[in-house]
Every structure is written in structure tokens, then in C-alpha cells.
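Quick entry, no commentary yet.
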Amino acid sequence: MRPRLLILACVAFVFAALTLVPAGHAAAAEPAAETPTARDTSSAGFSGWATREAVEDQGRRWVVALNTDDRKVRGPMFDTFYSEVYLRAMEDEYRMHRQIETVRDKVGRLEFHRADASVQGEGEERRATLHVYAKSKKDGRWRDLQFVLDPLPPHRIRALLAYPKIDGPPPPRGGER
């Protein structure tokens, strides 16, 4: 069973890496400020603080979906945080349920703590990521759920890359929380 999960994880990673920015659709570069303000820094490359908060809320919704047993309740949640690219790649809702259930079997139910989203680079090199910090109710350990996001708004989740154990969440970015 483990080799199968490893292969699936590798396929998801390669898919995410190859499809982050479709060819010919470079993101418009945001004008660079000479000296960023605390507010600019805290938005971590997003167009504003409200946008960043909306993106980070997707992490909260993903944890709610993970903790939900009823597939009829969980199914409609997928459209609120997964990107069109991900939804097409997964082909059917059953595979999305199995992915979340596999993560839950491994880490247990999670208690959401916070999420940090950021965008790095410009143009073809633009990358958006989301780190969701949550505590496992199964073993009491902290997890850093690492997601790749669409590089352009609305920055929906394209792939779950990893969910390693960590000692605890790092301090919030930009000091605003």
C-alpha cells in the first residue's frame, strides 16, 4: 500500500509543478514598492490583506472537510477550495473523498490553528503556497499541511504536497494576526 501512496504523491507533485502557470498565461507583475509597509509585507505577495485572508480561509475549509464523515456534506465543499485544474485532474468526486480520507487515516482529525499563504516570484516564475498549521487529535502532534495554489486569483488549491509533523507552528508572517 505504501508504494502506491508514494507513486500517487509523486504524480501529484509532478502534475502541480508542471501546471502551476499554463503556457502563454504569465501573471502580470505587481509594481514593486521601494520600501514595503508592514501591511504590504503581511499580504505576502497577494493583492491585499483581504485577499490573503480569503485564500487562507481555504485551509480552514479543507480541515473542516477532512473532519467531516458524511460524503454528502463534504462533496459540495470541494468547489469552495479546489481549483478547476485539480477538479479536472481528479476526474471524479470519489477520488477527492479518498484523498482526504487517506490523510485523515494517517494523521487523524485535525484542530485548525491558522494558515499562512504567500506568493513568490513574478511572471512564469510566480508560485503560490499555503501552509495550514493544525494539531492532530489522534496523536497530539502538530502538522504543516503544505498546498500548492493557483498562482492567480482566486488562488484555489491545486495540490496537497505534504503534511509533515512539526514541533509547533512558526510565528505568523508580518506580525498581523
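second:
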Amino acid sequence: MAWPRATHVAGVYFIMWAIVFLSLMAVRSVDRLAFLREASRADGAIVAWLPRSGPQVAFVTASGQAVSFFERDDLPWLWWREERLPAPVHVLYLAANPAGTAVIDTFQTVWGREVRDVLIGVGFVVLGVLGVTGRIERWRR
């Protein structure tokens, strides 16, 4: 009985990780779509910028409650500059918990994590298929 080659085993592990990342993306996407269906929209402003915390956003809900939050996104905010403050933004939030659910209404903040998980998952699928089929070993020769 011959042992499987290391690249075949690694390929199987990459495919397993691809399944994990694509599953995470699917679950987050379902949650995000539910959030978008129920979310209220408000006009707000980025009122402060803290290097490690990101933008601090203030807005007023439809019921008149003043809310301030830090955008919790883990993607870089390269396009904001301090001299542009206060900067107007649109905010999405759930009326039941505006401070805990508010996000700035941009593609990056709404879908950024899902896009990242898809890219990582597809990369793992490609590496897994190359490993299982042995094409990586052919490239090394």
C-alpha cells in the first residue's frame, strides 16, 4: 500500500478550509441580508477619527435618539482624512438597538467581510484542487 503524497494530503486540508470559509460567508450573508431588510437609514457624520479605533460616527434615529458609535469594520479606511471632518455619511441600524447594530452604509462596511471570506475560500479551493491532482508537484520539476 502506497502512502498518499504530501501534496495530496495538503490539498484535502485546503479544500476543508475552503468549505469552512465559504460556509462562514454563507452564514454571514444570510445574517447581513436579514439586517438589510429590517434596517432603518439615517444621515450621520464622522465626528472623530482615532487611529486604532477607526471613525466615530454620530447620528439621530427616527425616534430622536442621539447615537454615537465607532465603526467596527476590520478593513482599512484609507480614503478618510482628518481634515475632512465632520464628513457626512449614511448609517444603517436596527431600531431596537441602534448603538449596537449601526454601520456606515458603504459596500466595504456592509459586505467587506463576506467578500474577504469568498476570496480566501476560492483561493483554498484552487490550492486544494492543485494539491489533490498533483499539479503542484509537476510545477516544481
